[in-house]
Amino acid sequence: MPAPPLLALRRISKRFGAIQALSDVELEIHGGEVIALVGDNGAGKSTLVKVIAGVSPADTGVIEWQGRIVQVRRPHDAQELGIATVYQDLALCDNLDVVGNLFLGREIHRVGVLDEVEMERRAYELLHTLSIRIPNLRLPVASLSGGQRQAVAISRSLLGVPKLLLLDEPTAALGIEQTSQVLDLIDQLRDRGLGILLISHNMGDIKAVADRVAVLRHGRNNGFFDVNTTSQEQVISSITGATDNAGKTRTVRTGEAWL
């Protein structure tokens, strides 16, 4: 019998006043796979991430974690399950160094005093394990490149040893080389068995690292696609509504590979 999904969303709905942000959304994420969540502006992507992260709980629907129904009403609930989120603004403190940012809120103390040596040792081990090259861990993060800052934010989320990582547009403001570094990191994390939900508008990034694509349109499912067997045009058509299916989920199993 196959293992249940790491995370399963069943008929998730969310309303903000008169605005129906999500309607009966379904989604499954397994360990060791990258799911790209795509859709036009206002499609409900960020709202869905906030539902999973416990920032903005769903009004109705069911969340399953490793086959059991769970309640995710607060960020702490998500963190306890093993869900970590890296938002687009990264939430880094520019005046703190790399070590300070990595352990912000998770500081290590010894006899009531910050153990800077131990935190630096663990920071070095973590970044080395992930093949992240930052020559001086005592540099303020304000002096780092965009790619290095993104790597620090992702690394910080891994200190809690999560099983599912939510990434909101991790390459949006990066150049080609920095983007490649972040995508390599995502590949590493998938190989380690993490489930990853990647929000992105970049079809090249999606093709490079995603296994499946989930499309949202007007807060509803509008297609699930296998990256290796679906053309880019099919995904874009689903995003724009050229192949709108009135909110019914569609799974595409065959098709032309992306160029």
From TrEMBL:
Boundaries of every ABC transporter domain copy: 7-243
Keyword entries, A-Z: ATP-binding, Hydrolase, Nucleotide-binding
Enzyme Commission designation: 3.6.3.17
Keyword Electron transport in record: no
Gene3D superfamilies: P-loop containing nucleotide triphosphate hydrolases (3.40.50.300)
InterPro entries given in the database record: AAA+_ATPase (IPR003593), ABC_carbohydrate_import_ATPase (IPR050107), ABC_transporter-like_ATP-bd (IPR003439), ABC_transporter-like_CS (IPR017871), P-loop_NTPase (IPR027417)
Single Gene Ontology MF annotation: ATP binding
A Pfam cross-reference name: ABC_tran
Protein name per Swiss-Prot or TrEMBL: Xylose import ATP-binding protein XylG
